[in-house]
Design goal:
By secondary structure, the protein is α/β, with parallel strands linked by helices. It is 36% helix and 25% strand. It starts with a strand and ends in an 8-residue tail after the last strand.
Length: 162
């Protein structure tokens, strides 16, 4: 695995999540202990729920810890340019429908399509990287093939994560 760009804010958010998950460990262990004391574990829903919660928390802890060494922290407030790069906000227009959309290009662990940010590893993100205003890209997305024209590129800094 190579370096994975992540914003300062995204990195802090993951560090906070990691600390929170680690701080929950004693409570999860206590819940397992209490459920175990109730008796028969085969039909003990409290025990099963606590073990599942422990498994999910430990898996997330391992995931975050395994990626921390690979993150390349980027200050979004210091970015600029005329090409689409990590941290840029791109306004595109669907060439066929004329519909405009805006995407902020972020890392895979902080992208949130519902809030307008996509991963640079996504098909649309990869197609847009390195493009300039006026360029067109054709991308296969779940609803079919779409061609976007890059209308504008801006660098809004950390405001995009607010």
């Amino acid at each position: 695995m190579t370096n994975i760009p992540i914003s300062v804010q995204g990195y802090k958010k993951l560090e906070e999540e990691l600390a929170r998950l680690k701080s929950e460990r004693p409570a999860i262990i206590q819940a397992i202990k209490e459920a175990r004391e109730e008796g028969d574990l085969r039909e003990n829903a409290g025990y099963d729920a606590a073990r599942e919660r422990q498994g999910m928390a430990e898996a997330r802890i391992k995931y975050i810890e395994s990626r921390l060494a690979f993150y390349q922290v980027v200050d979004l407030d210091k970015l600029s340019g005329d090409k689409v790069i990590f941290g840029s906000t791109v306004e595109v227009e669907d060439v066929d429908s004329g519909e405009s959309r805006s995407f902020t290009i972020l890392g895979p662990d902080e992208a949130d399509p519902g809030k307008g940010s996509i991963s640079f590893l996504s098909p649309v993100g990869q197609a847009l990287l390195g493009k300039e205003e006026g360029d067109e890209v054709t991308v296969d997305i779940p609803r079919g093939r779409v061609t976007y024209e890059v209308i504008s590129i801006s660098f809004n800094g950390s405001k995009v994560l607010a």
